[in-house]
Amino acid sequence: MKVKAKNPGMGVEMPKKTCNDVHCPFHGELKLHGKVFIGKVIKRNPHKTINVEWPRINYIEKYERYSKKRSRVKAHNPECIDAKEGDTVKIIETRPISKTKTFVVVGVEQ
Predict the structure, then answer these.
(1) If exposure means fewest CB atoms within 10 Å of the residue's CB, which of 29, 36, 105, 110 is most exposed?
(2) C-alpha atoms less than 13 angstroms from C-alpha of 107 in its C-beta half-sphere
(3) Is the pLDDT of residue 6 over 80?
(4) How far is it, in rounded angstroms, from Cα 2 to Cα 27?
(5) N-terminal to C-terminal alpha carbon distance within the chain
(6) pLDDT confidence band for 44 (50 / 70 / 90)
(7) What is the pTM of this model?
(8) Which residues contact 65 (CB under 8 A, 6 or more apart)?
(9) Which residues of 80-97 are buried (b: 16+ CB within 10 A; e: fewer)?
(10) What does pLDDT average to over the chain?
(11) Burial 46-59 (b: 16+ CB within 10 A, else e)
């Protein structure tokens, strides 16, 4: 069965590779909506899952100072993108894919 690639929008470029992944926003039937983040891949699992982390700064009013925090989420890594550890990736929110995965990787930043 040949799947026609589609552009999901949201300013995302199409990958050069193809895949047969159902949860791929380009070659499957997954729709994108919600928040967009850019972060670094810190861990990669064999089940098409990656952990993405990005720093953020939090202001504490009582002390009039800033504290550094980080956010970590699990994201689906389609075969056509195949992000590695240490890559900077762009992830977009989607419907829940599993118990902990609600994001999907849509591109690797240079």
Answers:
(1) 110
(2) 16
(3) no
(4) 10
(5) 33
(6) very high
(7) 0.87
(8) 59
(9) bbbbeeebebbbbebeeb
(10) 91
(11) eebbbbbeeeeeee
